[in-house]
């Protein structure tokens, strides 16, 4: 879990600075989509824990932690990613190798949104 927190922290630090979030400028919305459930006592739990730790430093930035896709169903992933986009997410983390194809499609159609996949 420490590795997941470290990696997530480095990636977010390289994309955004705390000063920008606190300066009164538009708040950054960060969302996460996982393949499966958040409390799997494995990788998804670690990613969820990292995002919750990040929320301590940037409480207004974490808009939602999202996990409703039917595991392995491509159209469900694309639909969920579109919902996150419509909800104003600026950075969307995707957790799980099954999200690769959906992330490539959606990220090429939405260059204004930052995507990360683990």
UniProtKB/TrEMBL annotation:
Keyword Transport tagged: yes
Keywords: Cell membrane, Lipoprotein, Membrane, Palmitate, Signal, Transport
GO cellular component, one term: plasma membrane
Chief localisation class: membrane
Compartments where found: Cell membrane
Domain of life: Bacteria
ABC transporter substrate-binding protein PnrA-like domain location: 27-118
Keyword Amino-acid biosynthesis carried by entry: no
Pfam family, one: Bmp
Gene3D superfamilies assigned to the protein according to its UniProt record, in alphabetical order: 3.40.50.2300
PANTHER family for the chain: ABC TRANSPORTER GUANOSINE-BINDING PROTEIN NUPN, TRANSCRIPTIONAL ACTIVATOR PROTEIN MED
Name by which UniProt lists this protein: Membrane protein
Taxonomic path: Bacteria, Pseudomonadati, Spirochaetota, Spirochaetia, Spirochaetales
């Amino acid at each position: 879990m420490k590795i997941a927190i470290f990696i997530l922290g480095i990636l977010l630090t390289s994309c955004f600075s705390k000063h920008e979030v606190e300066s009164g400028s538009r708040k950054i919305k960060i969302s996460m989509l996982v393949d499966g459930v958040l409390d799997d006592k494995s990788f998804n739990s670690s990613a969820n824990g990292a995002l919750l730790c990040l929320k301590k430093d940037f409480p207004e930035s974490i808009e939602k932690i999202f996990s409703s896709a039917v595991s392995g169903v491509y159209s469900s992933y694309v639909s969920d990613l579109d919902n996150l986009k419509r909800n104003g997410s600026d950075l969307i983390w995707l957790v799980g190798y099954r999200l690769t194809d959906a992330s490539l499609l959606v990220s090429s159609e939405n260059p204004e949104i930052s995507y990360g996949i683990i």
